[in-house]
Amino acid sequence: MMTFIFVATFFVIIALGYYTSRGVKSLSAFTVAGKTSTWWMLVATFTAANVSAGMYLGATDLSGKIGYAMWCSSWPTCAGWLVIFGFTGVLMYRFAQKKEIFTIPDFFAERFPSKSTGVRAVSALIIPLAYIPYMTAQMVAIGGIANSVFGLNYSIAVIFMGLVLISFLSTGGMSSIVKIDAIMILLVIIGLVVPSFTGVSFLGGGDGAKGWQMILTGKDPSIFQGFSETWPWWIAVAQFTWLFSNATEPHLLTKVLTAKSEREILKALPIILIVGLVLYAAIIPIGIVGSLMPNPTGEKHYYINMVKQLSSVIAGLSLAGVAAAAITTVSVQALNSTTSISRDFYQKVFNKNASNDEVLKLSRILTIVVVAVITGLALWNPMGIYWFVVLSAALIASAFFVPYVLGFIFTKMSGEAAFWSMIVGFVACLITYAVNKSLGTHYFVDHVYAGMLASALAAIVAGFYKKASAGDVEAALCVRRPSSPSPREEGLVAES
């Protein structure tokens, strides 16, 4: 039964991908689902995009070691959701109603017209580079589950996962993702919430109270502390990465662009926060229980070790939830990556005469290329699942937080400042990560803070070198006013 449910998930996804792709002919439908998502569809697709396989395996493994200190990561993540649905996503949506915006590079080009080609090209390149580690983590997770639970060869499982993604993504794009997420979110919730409750009871031999008693006596008291020897303060502080990255993650902002109206976004906000808090609360007992359960097969993931010992139905549904989370997350990130290259790099920079049909075809071809790259990296598997995801989040925050968020706040931010803040922030984050990784130290500077600081400094220096144009200021004010500009806004534009 467990094997049947897990494998059947893949074939259902392939079938649904083809079914929902019928009628997907326009670029708008392929990239932002035709902007038809209601509040409940936003809740489903946004949550499914956030709850990746890294959360199932990476975060639960970490929870088994550090316990409730994992909340240092969870609450900044949910705070990031609040920022994106209450601020950055709403402003992005408003801007998209007045400009032709399908992607994040579209936004940067329209927000900074004085450097439109440069900011578009740079952001279009950064997106796939930053997302490659994140997407690779999902492939590694599925390959590991198939190998550990079903005895399938890891390499074969990873390649099969790649074929599923190609079939799924090259057909209906975002339209398929949003519609299927409404179904798969149920598997995602079951995969975390059900094991969280049943696992504690199972540990206590059917008695939940006894299970918690075993946790209190079997684990070190440090699991209830914010910091510990295995989770020092500088790692805990670095978890603010999730706040900064979630506010500007292209695949999350693109989900917001699928909304039918701004009101649907605001209606979805409180429900998304509740669902997120519940799911992040569930991962901690899963990790703790999984670390205490007998491990006769030497399983390296606490989550898998636990669900393997539950009933076959719960285990099958839980593992199907992991598969669903991996597929939905990597799908939308791959779509953002291919669209950035095909539309923002090819059509908007190199071949401005290319038709939307050409771009659509190129996006589908590039999907195969991107999936092939991450499949190869997953077969290599140079680092752990959780840290793959953290690296991606840090790169996104370092490159985009300053020009995107501060670009809304400071009307006089110039295109030159945005251009250099993206480049310098991304490179600084990558270099700091490589140095810390190779030397086994942190020097009290996490790579995300190094990247964001460098990005901010680059924006300040470049801003002094070249001031914002009238077009830059006008674009910033465009989001804030529903119709005609106020006298103060007209003065700002004239002054620039």
Description:
The chain has about 500 residues and is an all-alpha fold. It has helices spanning about 1-20, 25-30, 40-50, 55-65, 70-100, 105-110, 115-150, 155-205, 210-220, 235-240, 240-245, 250-255, 260-290, 300-305, 310-350, 355-380, 385-410, 415-440, 445-465, 470-480, 485-495. It has a single domain, classed as Sodium/glucose cotransporter, CATH 1.20.1730.10. It contains 21 helices and no strands. Helix 6 (about 105-110) runs antiparallel to helix 7 (about 115-150). The longest helix is centred in the middle third of the chain and has 50 residues, at about 155-205. It is globular and about 70 Å long. Residues about 485-490 have low confidence and may be disordered.
Brief account:
With 496 residues, this protein is mainly α.
Q: Return the string of H and E elements.
A: HHHHHHHHHHHHHHHHHHHHH
Q: Could you name the CATH topology?
A: Sodium/glucose cotransporter
What does the average pLDDT come to? 81
Please state the second-level CATH architecture: Up-down Bundle
Classify the beta-strand content into a percent band: under 5%
Structural class: mainly alpha
- The CATH homologous superfamily corresponds to Sodium/glucose cotransporter
Number of domains: 1
Question: Can you give the helix content as a percent range?
Answer: over 70%
The biggest beta sheet is recorded as:
none
* Tally of individual helices: 21
Low-confidence stretches: 483-490
Report the strand count.
0
The Rg value, from CA coordinates, equals 22 Å
Shape: globular
Distance between the termini: 67 Å
